[in-house]
Design goal:
46% of the residues lie in helices and 21% in strands. With 120 residues, the chain is an alpha+beta fold. The protein has one domain (3-115): 2-Layer Sandwich (Nucleotidyltransferase, domain 5). The protein has a four-stranded mixed beta sheet. Helix 3 packs parallel to helix 4. The longest helix has 21 residues, at 3-23.
Length: 120
């Protein structure tokens, strides 16, 4: 691996390690952002399964949004994941920003998920 990838993997490991210690029985809300889209999942680490997922690449999102890379897309995806998680009976999660700074799209997604009813 390159040095950059090593640093990214170490940062992700630090974030996830702290989350696992603090989470308890809560599920993990994991964010991935690329240059064109944003993706989010609610993950049960004990069972190793994804319980709910949403992204800006979904067909309904592509029809309504101008681009999948903006703050508006992140807000829409945040509201959608909150709705899908509540349908599965999940209210309390721990936020895994995946090593990204809590700024811009990541922050917009988190705030929209909180407004949608998720607690973290």
């Amino acid at each position: 691996m390159t040095k950059l990838n090593d640093r990214i993997m170490r940062r992700q490991g630090r974030v996830r390690g702290g989350l696992r210690r603090a989470a308890g029985a809560r599920k993990r809300l994991s964010v991935f952002r690329s240059s064109k889209h944003i993706y989010v999942q609610v993950i049960d680490d004990d069972a190793g399964i994804t319980l709910a997922a949403a992204s800006s690449i979904e067909k309904s999102m592509r029809e309504t949004l101008k681009t999948g890379a903006g703050i508006e897309a992140a807000k829409t995806v945040g509201k959608l994941i909150a709705q899908r998680a509540q349908e599965k009976g999940i209210k309390d999660v721990v936020f895994d920003r995946g090593g990204y700074l809590y700024h811009g799209r990541v922050r917009a997604l988190a705030e929209a998920a909180r407004e949608g009813g998720l607690n973290f």
